[in-house]
Write a structure and sequence with these properties.
single chain, 237 residues, alpha/beta, seven-stranded parallel β-sheet, 7 helices, 43% helix
C-alpha cells in the first residue's frame, strides 16, 4: 500500500473549506482519510486537487456522521482501508445554523447537536480507543467564536459548540496520560483567501494552527482553546 509508513490523519469535513485547507497543509507528512456528508462534486474536486502529491494515500468516505452508529461504520471502513491507528483526528465538519429561538423548535436544536456534538462524540469514542492502546494521538475539534460572542439567531449553534468545548476539555484530562492531546480551535469569520479584511482570518491561518496542534511541537498542549478571529469576538462590532 502506497505510503504505508506515513501517519494517518482523519479529517471530518475534509473535502471542502477549512478541512481542505488542512489537507493541503499536512499533505507532505500524512496519509488522509477524508469524511464528507453529501457534496460529491466537492469530494471529487478535493481528490483532484490533492492527487499531485507523490507517495500519499488519500481516500474519501461519504457518511453523515451524527451519532455513534454512523461514526463506528465509517471508522471501520477507514481501518479496513489503512490498517493502522490514526495519528490525528480533526473534527471540522459542520455548518452555522441560524434562527431566532422563539421561531425554532426542538428539531432545530437536535440537528445542531447531531452535527456538531454527537457525531464528534462518536468519532472520538471510536478513534481514541485505538489511540489509547497505541499511546499516542492528536485530536482537534473546531468550535466557533459564537460560544462567547453573543449574537441573536445562533442559540442552537452556540449551545452545541459550547457543549463541544466543555466535552473536549474534560476528555483532555482523561487521555493525556496516554500521550493523547485534545484541543479546540475557535475561528472567527473565515475567508478562503489570503486577502482578508478587518475582523477576518484566512483558511490558511486557521489550517496552520491546526497543523501545529497535531504536530511534534505541541506535545504538552492539551485542553486548550485557541481563538483565531482577528480580535472580532472581543471588541469589534
Amino acid at each position: 500500500m502506497s505510503g504505508a509508513l506515513r501517519p494517518l490523519a482523519i479529517i471530518c469535513g475534509g473535502t471542502s473549506g477549512l478541512g481542505l485547507s488542512v489537507d493541503k497543509n499536512i499533505l507532505d507528512s500524512y496519509d488522509l482519510a477524508l469524511i464528507y456528508r453529501s457534496n460529491h462534486i466537492g469530494a471529487e474536486n478535493a481528490i483532484v486537487s490533492l492527487a499531485a502529491a507523490v507517495g500519499v494515500t488519500v481516500k474519501v468516505y461519504c457518511k453523515n456522521v451524527i451519532d455513534s452508529t454512523s461514526a463506528a461504520e465509517v471508522y471501520a471502513d477507514i481501518k479496513n482501508d489503512f490498517n493502522r491507528v490514526p495519528h490525528a483526528l480533526i473534527n471540522s465538519a459542520g455548518y452555522t445554523q441560524s434562527g431566532l429561538f422563539l421561531t425554532s423548535d426542538f428539531l432545530d436544536f437536535k440537528e445542531s447537536f447531531d452535527n456538531h456534538v454527537f457525531g464528534v462524540f462518536g468519532m472520538i469514542h471510536e478513534v481514541a480507543a485505538d489511540m489509547y492502546v497505541q499511546k499516542y494521538g492528536r485530536i482537534v475539534n473546531i468550535s466557533s467564536i459564537a460560544t462567547f460572542s453573543n449574537q441573536k439567531g445562533l442559540s442552537a449553534y452556540a449551545a452545541a459548540k459550547s457543549a463541544l468545548e466543555s466535552f473536549s476539555q474534560s476528555i483532555a484530562i482523561e487521555l493525556f496520560h496516554k500521550n493523547i492531546t485534545v484541543n479546540v480551535v475557535q475561528p472567527g469569520i473565515i475567508k478562503n483567501t489570503e486577502l482578508v479584511g478587518v475582523g477576518e482570518v484566512s483558511e490558511k491561518e486557521v489550517a496552520n494552527l491546526i497543523s501545529f496542534l497535531i504536530g511534534p511541537h505541541a506535545s504538552t498542549i492539551t485542553g486548550a482553546k485557541y481563538l483565531i478571529d482577528a480580535g472580532r469576538g472581543r471588541w469589534l462590532p
